[in-house]
Amino acid sequence: MTLAAQSGRPKPPGEDWMSLFNGKDLSGWVEIGHEKWLVEDATIHGLAITREYGYLRTVKNYKDFHLSLKFKCDADGNSGVFFHAEFKPGTADVTQGPQFEIDCTIGLHTAGIYDVGRQWLVWPAPENETVVRQNEWNEYLLKVEGNRYVARLNGILMVDYTDPKPFGSDGAIALQLHSGGHGNMRFRDIWIRDLSTR
To answer: What gap in Å lies between CA 8 and CA 122, rounded to an integer?
Structure first.
């Protein structure tokens, strides 16, 4: 029996995919900051309880990978999937790491890439700003291969960006709750294909 069949979670097509979330607890993840992260109905529920940033990062660092996950915005608020992320010890301050944006408000660049030091690197084309589904599950397929970053949202190619000045060659993958106290996000079916081990 496959891992996917054992867990009851759908597995992305292809080989070498491993689950990052067992559907039961936060094994393999570390909470950064003071926001609330819990497991409910086989989903990771991130809930803002302060007005600060909050993150849930992988214990393991990753360099080149493909990542498949589903997300749902239960309320207004900004989120994202960071990669090559590092944090200032004892804080929720990101010291390095771009992110694939998540914001279910139409026109706020979900699947665009934002970098802590350089701000926006690329936005989706205007006609793709409505691809994100409000109050529904969305499917993300993210690829980080060297300095090339690719995002597909609900089957649509959103960005394919080659970074001329990449900063950091590996680091954690991290789910974000943006500051402001409005974060209410759910994540599920999180799978990774680690290209660095092939």
So the answer is: 36
Model pTM score: 0.90
In a domain, 4, yes or no: no
Total domain count for the chain? Answer: 1
pLDDT tens for the chain, 198 residues long, are 334 433 445 666 677 899 999 999 999 999 999 999 999 999 999 998 888 889 999 999 999 999 999 999 987 778 999 999 999 988 888 999 999 999 999 999 999 999 988 999 999 999 999 999 988 999 999 999 999 999 999 999 999 999 998 877 899 999 999 866 578 999 999 999 999 876
Range of the domain at 62: 24-180
